[in-house]
């Protein structure tokens, strides 16, 4: 039977102390039912590191507050074992918030194991952009639905707003509390830049700021944001000097410009399109690469064979089952995915792995109910066309 531990009346420092005391008094195999006003995942990882004792926990809900979770106390960690955090039952936004906080508190020389349901590579780029080259990142396993990465902080970092990321004036701007995340695209491979940025932008709250650092102003990315998000964001160049441009993108409430499948008017009516693969080092060039699109064309006859509602599934199981459903599709068929939030991050994973036959089209976007057609179309495109990056239908 679980022991109830209510931390809602504790401040942040008292919460940590009360949590540690409760776990210290538990025996291996005991379960503690924790209730708190905020996430305690960082404290649980810190406990494993400081006390050399294994913990495992599961949240009652991926996002609602107060946070409720069951913590199972384990045996002492073996000599070569690491503290572990499994984020598969958290919403994507909470995952990043918890992991950024965890790395912020991680002393130099410490490490932990991250367990996720897909490749967390965007987090690697985010940590490098926020903290510099102080991260050791090693994949321990890459199984379907369970990726394990050993993450080590090998040196101290000064983080966003420190003297190593720009001029004093620029750092004052970078240090604002509203900057949720930061990406230095100069350090990210070109083919990973746009999927990484869109994957993370979809998670930040309204009013939050994403900061992009590039060699020059990334105009192709700006145009892409205009197509995909309409006028629901603002774009401000806050620093520009030779070899370095810093842009802050602020997410504001959506005020139109998108229809039900997420395309702007120009996209719907065949207007001019900029190359999705535009270089974020600032080169404002139109490419000659063949464009692909992930929205079905009028000529494609796709047979919708089923509706797949994942809202009752734990978040940790959703991605794996959706990919399994796609793998089982025959050419020319598809299914309608029903989810309780915008599955946009899933699009970027399909984009990277599924090839030119992949199709994605929004059918409904309401609070608590998103419907997306996911299909496998026939394609006669040559291999070089498949290597070009598709234009996201948002």
From TrEMBL:
Which superkingdom does the taxonomy of this entry point to? Archaea
List residues of the DUF2249 domain. 84-153, 183-251, 307-376
Q: What is this protein called?
A: DUF2249 domain-containing protein
Compositional bias ranges of the Basic and acidic residues kind: 258-279
Question: Where is the region Disordered?
Answer: 155-177, 248-299
């Amino acid at each position: 039977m679980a022991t109830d531990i209510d931390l809602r009346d504790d401040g942040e420092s008292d919460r940590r102390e009360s949590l540690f005391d409760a776990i210290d008094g538990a025996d291996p195999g005991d379960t503690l039912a924790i209730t708190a006003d905020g996430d305690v995942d960082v404290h649980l990882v810190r406990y494993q590191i400081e006390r050399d004792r294994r913990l495992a926990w599961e949240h009652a809900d991926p996002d609602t507050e107060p946070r409720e979770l069951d913590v199972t106390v384990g045996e002492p960690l073996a000599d070569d074992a690491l503290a572990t955090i499994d984020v598969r039952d958290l919403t994507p936004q909470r995952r990043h918030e918890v992991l950024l906080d965890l790395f912020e508190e991680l002393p130099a020389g410490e490490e932990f194991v991250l367990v996720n349901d897909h490749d967390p590579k965007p987090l690697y780029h985010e940590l490098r952009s926020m903290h510099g080259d102080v991260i050791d990142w090693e994949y321990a396993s890459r199984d379907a639905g369970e990726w394990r990465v050993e993450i080590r902080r090998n040196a101290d970092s000064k983080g966003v707003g420190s003297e190593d990321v720009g001029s004093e004036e620029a750092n004052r701007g970078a240090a604002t509390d509203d900057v949720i995340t930061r990406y230095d695209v100069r350090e990210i491979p070109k083919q990973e830049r746009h999927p990484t940025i869109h994957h993370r932008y979809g998670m930040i709250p309204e009013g939050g700021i994403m900061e992009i650092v590039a060699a020059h102003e990334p105009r192709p990315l700006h145009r892409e944001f205009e197509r995909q998000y309409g006028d629901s964001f603002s774009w401000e160049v806050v620093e520009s000097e030779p070899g370095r441009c810093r842009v802050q993108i602020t997410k504001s409430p959506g005020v139109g410009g998108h229809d039900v499948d997420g395309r702007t008017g120009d996209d719907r009516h065949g207007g001019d399109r900029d190359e999705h693969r535009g270089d974020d080092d600032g080169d404002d060039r139109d490419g000659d690469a063949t464009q692909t699109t992930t929205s079905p064309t009028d000529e494609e006859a796709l047979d919708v064979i089923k509706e797949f509602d994942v809202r009752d599934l734990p978040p940790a199981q959703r991605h794996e089952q959706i990919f399994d459903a796609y793998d089982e599709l025959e050419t020319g068929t598809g299914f309608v995915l029903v989810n309780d939030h915008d599955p946009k991050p899933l699009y970027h994973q399909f984009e990277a792995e599924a090839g030119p036959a992949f199709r994605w089209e929004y059918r409904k976007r309401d609070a608590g109910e998103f419907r997306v057609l996911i299909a496998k179309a026939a394609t006669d495109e040559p291999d070089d066309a498949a290597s070009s990056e598709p234009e996201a239908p948002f």
